[in-house]
Amino acid sequence: MSTLAAYGGLFLAALVAATILPAQSEAVLGGLLATGTYSPVLLILVAGIGNVLGSVVNWLLGRGVERFRGARWFPVSDKSLDRAGRWYRKYGWWSLLLSWMPIIGDPLTVAAGIMREPFLRFLAVVSIAKFGRYIVLAALVLHWL
After folding, report:
1. Where are any strands of DSSP class E within 4-100?
2. d(C-alpha 68, C-alpha 76), whole Å
3. Verdict on whether the full-model pTM lies above 0.85
C-alpha cells in the first residue's frame, strides 16, 4: 500500500466514523500502527484531524437540523436527537468530552450544534476528546502503556 493511500484511507475512515454514518476508524489506525511502517505521530495527527472534521460536520448538521428533522432520508431519529439534547442540556459543553465514545458521541456533537454551542469551544473540547482517544489507542497498540 502506498503511503498516500494509507494516510488518505485513515483520514477518510476517521472522518466518516465521526459523522452520523456508521464506520470504524480505530481498526484502521490500529492496523496501520501494527505494521510499524508509518509514523505513529503522523497517523494520530491524520486520524485526529479527520475525526474532528467529521464532528464539525455533525455540529453543522445540528445547526440546521430543524430543516431536516423528521425527513425520511435523515439518518438520525427524533428520539435520538431528543435524548442527545436532554443529555446536553443536563451536562452542558463538558459532555463533549464523551464525543469519542461509540453510539453517544456522534449525537452529542449534533446536539452541540442544535444547542448553538460556540464553535471554538466545541472545536477545542472535541479535539481533546478525539485526539486523546487516538493517543490512548496508539499507546495500547504500541505497548507504550
Report:
1. none
2. 10
3. yes
